[in-house]
Amino acid sequence: MAFLMKRSLPILSILYAASALAQNSPAPASPAPTPAAASTTQLKARGPEAVALQAPTRVVATINGKQLTAKEAADLLKAIPPEQLKQYESNLPSVVQQIFMSQELAKEAEKTKLDQQSPIKEQLALSRDQILTRAYLNKLATAPSGAPAPDPAQYYSAHPEEFDKVKLSGIFVSFNPPGTPASSANNSRTEDAARAKAEDIEKKLKAGGDFATLARTDSENQQSAARGGEIGTFSVADPQLPPDLRTAVAKLQTGQISEPVRVPNAYLILKADSRNKLTLDQARPEILQKLQNERSQAAVKQEVDKYKIQVQDPDFFNSSSKPAIPSLQRPGSTVSAPPNKP
């Protein structure tokens, strides 16, 4: 239940409107609508926040004989960070059940004073400290800095390679490294066989073969193969790209195809679908986000670095040393050589 341990759910603003029926001609005043009639003119709320806002006392579930209202169930879900809650939208009943059960069992544990016993008492304190630590560091990272904001134009001029963007497609030919078990029929191929197949595909491409078609039939990366080989858009100087791959990408212009490049467990043929240099205005949002991230990381690092440990007694931390094997020899005695056999 790691999803229970992060941030709180933000309050969402949800508006509702009631539609009124217009009368074409004057008519006597009608009696007030019954609750059933009124409900037909109101939009039906869906989702925890919407239902809790519209009908907070409506019973939405029963667990272990206890009826949960919409507000109670929505309050339970506030323990889950919003980005994680989206992942569980299709299984919210199970999430509510787990949180409710956790709270109820925790109460039973408190009744028996388990929370006052070691090591549970210390573990609870540690969990609380960890949650507050994350909250404090998040606050520190988002706090405005007193330093002047860096100039995006200056960063743009100093790092031109970061804004040279290339959209790539690729054909992967995999191989099985020596000494590792083959996980599939394709991975039983040796590196030499993979290189030979990649070179054969390269010849077909140079002879006019369609890259997307060959990617769908020959590439062994299923996700990109289904898209005709499309991998994504990268910076030419992306540090996450392996050096050999970065060198190959830097040489490609729009429409060009690379020679087979060796990557871990495969040979890769690349095609530059497009390549262009972002203008300063196009790159400005990316630069501002990058600079903000760097400043946030620097602020957090400065705080964390205050607490670097300086070990004064290595023996205290040396728990891996093995105890000496006791000797059966008496102190002061000497070991004589075994007598010579006749």
Short description:
The protein is an alpha+beta fold and 342 residues long. It contains 13 helices and 6 strands. It has a 4-stranded antiparallel beta sheet with strand order 4-3-6-5, sandwiched between helices. It has a two-stranded antiparallel sheet with strand order 1-2.
Q: What is the topological layout?
A:
Blueprint: H1 35-40, H2 48-54, E1 59-63, E2 66-69, H3 70-77, H4 82-85, H5 92-111, H6 120-142, H7 152-158, E3 164-174, H8 191-206, H9 211-218, H10 222-226, E4 230-235, H11 243-251, E5 261-263, E6 266-277, H12 280-305, H13 314-317
Antiparallel strand pairs: 1-2, 3-4, 3-6, 5-6
Helix pairs in contact: 2-3, 6-12, 7-12
Notes on the structure:
Among the domains are: 79 residues, no CATH class; 118 residues, Chitinase A, domain 3. By secondary structure, the chain is an alpha+beta fold. The relative contact order is 0.08. The radius of gyration is 33 Å and the shape is extended. The strands form 2 sheets. A 4-stranded antiparallel β-sheet has the order 4-3-6-5, sandwiched between helices. A two-stranded antiparallel ribbon has the order 1-2. The N terminus is likely disordered. Strand 5 and strand 6 form a beta hairpin. It is built from 13 helices and 6 strands.
